[in-house]
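Researcher: I've got a protein sequence and the SMILES for nicotinamide-adenine-dinucleotide. Could you write out the 3D structure of the bound complex as structure tokens? I'd like something to compare against our soaking experiments later this week.
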Amino acid sequence: MTTALVTGAGGALGRSIALRLASDGHAVAVLDITAAAVEETARLVEKQGGTALPLTVDLRDATAIDGAFARTAEELGPVGILVNNAAVYPSRPFREVPLAEYDDVVAVNQRAYWIAAQAATAQMVPTGGGAIVNIASITMHGGWADLAAYVSTKGAAAALTRALARELGPHEIRVNCVSPGAFPTDAEKIHPDPEEYHRFVLERQSLKRRGRGEELAAVVSFLAGPDASFVTGQTVEVNGGWVMS
Ligand SMILES: NC(=O)c1ccc[n+]([C@@H]2O[C@H](COP(=O)([O-])OP(=O)(O)OC[C@H]3O[C@@H](n4cnc5c(N)ncnc54)[C@H](O)[C@@H]3O)[C@@H](O)[C@H]2O)c1
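Model: Sure. Here is the predicted complex with nicotinamide-adenine-dinucleotide in place.
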């Protein structure tokens, strides 16, 4: 078993992913900007018998990301699995988005995925390989009004996945992407009417129920694990049959 690092692990889906990777037997470094949330994730991992290292890091800070990887290697061993999951999703009409807000979205959802992948690769190459899983979003397919910056970074996550898979395969590093549909997390609070949004989602999904974080985490676990040893450069849609590809 190896060391996994999950970003945004204080949020709902990141926490589910961290818990699943821990139950797969990996030591998990759980990284988030919110100390209380990430400490709670670490507590839950330890409660189920796992090993967790909570890291309070702002992913807009490249030096802090590198520091987090160095600390993880020191305390848990070199990173063999990276899950780039953290994201911000401010909602605003495209024509009103201040450049500073756009820069912030790109910094967390795109630039940090890049920096973390570089830091992880530096630890994976000497150990003979690893797995990177980038989290995209169903919105990259059909777009979404008032979320243009977010949507564009999610398309970038899928494209980065393919570019890195191509380049890192010779080092036995697999890079895949998971594209979630609509999971009932904090992310949904951007929709003003929860009941209406719930109906909207179920109308579009083939499965007439909401997805659970564990169902997303199971796919991440598969892609990060030995059963996916010949899978790289792929994007897996986990959306209850909303967008089908
Ligand atoms: N929930 C959904 O329906 C849904 C749908 C499609 C895609 N996704 C994707 O799934 C992933 C997880 O989403 P979620 O629903 O759990 O959202 P969430 O908001 O609960 O979790 C995101 C986490 O990222 C952290 N984060 C934000 N900015 C950060 C920064 N600067 N530094 C460090 N951490 C930071 C937040 O603190 C939060 O804990 C995201 O990539 C999101 O785009 C979610």
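Model: The first helix runs from residue 12 to 23. Residues 8, 10-14, 32-34, 37, 57-60, 85-88, 108, 135, 137-138, 180, 182-183, 185-187 surround nicotinamide-adenine-dinucleotide (CB under 6 Å).
Researcher: Great, I'll pass this along to the crystallography team.
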